[in-house]
Amino acid sequence: MKYSLSKLVTALFCFAILSTTVVQAQDPQQYQASVYGFMGSDPHVTPWGNNMGRSFDIPASKGGEDYILLSNPDYADGLGLEIQIRTQVNDHWSFVRAVGIRIGDETFEIEASASDYTAAPRYWVNGKEHDTADTITSFASNVVAADMLPLNSKQYRFEADLSIFEGDKIVVETFGPYCRVDMYTYGSFDSHSGLLGTFPQGIKLGRDESTIFGDDDGEAFAQEWKVVPAQDGTLFHATAATSARSSNSRLSRASA
Question: Would you call 133 helix, strand, or coil by DSSP?
Answer without folding.
Answer: coil
